[in-house]
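To: structure desk
From: M.T.
Subject: fold request, one chain
Message: Could you run this one when you get a chance? Sequence is below, nothing fancy, just the single chain.
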Amino acid sequence: MDYGDRERPPEVRGMSWRMFWILFIVIVLFTVWLIGGQVIWFWLNVEEFGELFTRPFYFETLGGFILAAIALLRIDFRNRRSITWWFIRLILRVFRSRGEILSIPPEYLDFTYFRLSPVKFALWQITKVLVGMTIFANIIFGMAVQAMLNGWESNITNIPELFTLPFATPPLDMTYAQQNVVPLAPVLTLLISPILMVLGVRLILLVGFTQAVKVGTSAFLQSTEPGQQVNVPLATIEGLIALALTWTGVNFFFPSYIDYNTKYVIGGLFVAAALLAVFAFLDRSRRKRRLPITSRAIVLRIVSVLIVVLFVGSLVTVQNSIADARKVEWMGPYTTQEISVNRYLAQLDAVNEVRYNFSITPVAPERIKQYVANYSELLSKVRLWDLEASNAKLKPEIGLIPYVDFEDSDILRFNNTLYWSASMKPVLPRTVESGNRWFLEHMYYTHVPNGFLLLDGHEGTIVNSAKFFQQRQIYYGEGGLLTDTWAAYPLKSGRSAEVGDTLYNGTGGIDIRPPLSWIFDSTFLVSFPDDTVHALRYKDVYDRMRMLYPYFMYDFVGKPVDMYPVTDGKNTYWAMPLIVGLDGGDIPWSTGRPLLRQVGYALIDIYNGNIQVIVTGNDFFSQLFKTSYGDYVSTEMPDWLKDQTRYPEELFEWRVSMYNYYHVSDPATFISAKDFFEVPAGLDTYYVISKPPLFNQPEFLGILSLQLRDSPGRNLAGYAVVRNDYSSLGQIIFYQVPLDSSTKLLGPTAVLEALQKDKDYAERKTLLSSAGGVKEGDNILYRIGDQDVYFIPVYTAKSGGVITQMGLVAAVGASFTGQTFIGLGSTTEEAFSNYLAKLGGVEAPPVEEIGASDRRALIEQIFLDKGLKVVEPKEVHPDIVFLEGNVTYASAQDRNNTVPLVTSFVGNWSSAASEGRILRWRQDSVVNYGMLVNVNGIVELHYISISFEKPS
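Reply: Done. Structure tokens follow.
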């Protein structure tokens, strides 16, 4: 063995390969671990949700495949060009030649000479389409294509009709757009937009960019040859510009607006394109005959195009000048079509417009009492508690529980009564140590044990949520840990580790067996290596819906679409409105506004997470969705849900925002922009039980007031109501105040200012403020008989704390001729009675005070109405005694504080009271009412104390 052999260390080479393989294995394992979780998560989705999860992927893949093929697929098998592979080959050659461009053979530089083999070319086209599927994926386009294959009618065959619209002056008749544009809405919103987009991409990449590369490489090679003159490929440049102008002209047939100039712009584009195409043909012939292109020829081409541009520009300018002087005559036909199309987009033709007849009608003093009595039922349905006040009153009900918090509040109706429902979310207590965080997030704080709090929206009493919601455990909801984490528990243990000592036994979630559970979360590898884990994922119902039904809007103007709880008497669901929003940018005269429709509702079980979809719409997208999901949706509304339906606030307010402009059907009035409406600043939809004109009985409505846009006065132009009963769900009625009416209808802002300036109210407010904070609530307009009145609650707080009491009710007259009439009282009846007295020019009638025995009888009637029996025992010997509250009921003003306490006490304890009895015993002037409750063998006495006499 020579010296050279002795110097070669085979050990090092072996170690090097060993280290290489070790490193390779580590990288592979790390990669598998990195992406394994996502792969497992995807696989679990398939296992848990089945076709409901894969169907959107199918539609997305189908849409992406078709659009990618249109955009990227080359069919030129003769030339078999590919810019990508030509560029890759060129870059590799540049590296190989160490950057010396001139040493590279011309066949590498000139794109014209590049060819792929037939097999490689075919494989490359397939690869491009597969990659492009992810770029051009369009789920709604794919769903529409599949539905068309299944028989759904998109009206795509009527597209040629659009090409005549720019060249015809429409009549002053909205039926023109209804006949020629509206029927094309399905194809224009679902199919045309993506097709136009990918055709544009194809022209840019496969035509424009390809030709630019050919021209550029050819010119570069010519410049590298000494003495060789660079030939400018003028014919190619002219052809590309002609193609671009032609494509721009085609897109002008799908604008968001058409007017008297559109046809001239389209004509100018096509004429300029035709001129350049002719020049391109001549220049190509000239080049074949090797004739030089002179500067005069170039100037001729430029001047010809400029003449077309100047001619069209001059024509447009003249047209605009004439239109400025004859605006209605020239713009009127097109404005009429704009109104027609936008009324279709927002379904404004379905809005029932009613002339609002109102006046100031005094009631004779001797009739006031009877008048109030006639409308006592309607007055009892006035909603006195608003969102902020209800939250403030419900907040203490959480108590000292550190792991739940408020998430959302909704207005609900049961038995023709309104309730504020505060739904809660699980949160991690701030004191949790980091070492316990994983366990508490995933296995302990898995749900909200009692997820709803209820408050009567009329009286402000807290109601036991069990009265309506039998199922109150929220495993699927929104916010907090429901949004942030998944939950899980091992199956073998068979015991609960969840808060509240419960064990989930619903149908939601999926079993994950080892070793998949190890990849799902590495903690299970150590903690439960041989145990199957049951995991609840997608606990946030918005994430759940986005994954399974990604066709709808789940955010509206930056806020989640409002869902609310409903119940069938046993199970509780989130009722989420399904609203679809489609781009209207390619609909003529849409001015770019979208098309919105409510397709139906999704009912998401709060315990099991399963989803029921109910389609209630009859529009083209609802039909499309039913065609695509016929085996997963229902068109029958359950009977129990019909009494709990509510029209989406977001959709109502959007339709009203469109109505603000497009209620105007006269083009001259629309152009002058003098009768547009707007919603007063800071005003939202109020859901109330009310009885406006045309209604035979009080009904659950959403109400939104409108005023004239930019009007210096803040009087109402009217108000819109939306009906929520299932039989009339979504019907909008607009009560319009005549503009020439001598009597005005005050708006919410003006009413509040009038109240705050009222002398009597200022005095009462000062007295209320001495006990704590004071705040005015929502000012909602009601029609009581023939009186239009705003009822404004005034809340108070003890010692400046949270608002928990009703201090005062103000009834402010909405009709105004120079004087505002205001009545104050402790109840709506009293405030309305005092308003009528002021309106009639008399002093407010004195409040009829009743005796202590009568006041006690009124309170005890609450017990009797709940089926309880009042008894007076000689002795009571409970194990534990709890005082639930005390109050003084010595006058009519004290009623608002007493009734809520008694009602809440009965609601919380009557179901557990021994033999349905109320115990009554006296202590001086105080009467105590209590209930005996047996809790695990311990007798508890829960009672309240009421003083029916004024303290001395």
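Reply (cont.): The first strand starts at residue 352 and ends at 355. Let me know if you need anything else for the meeting.
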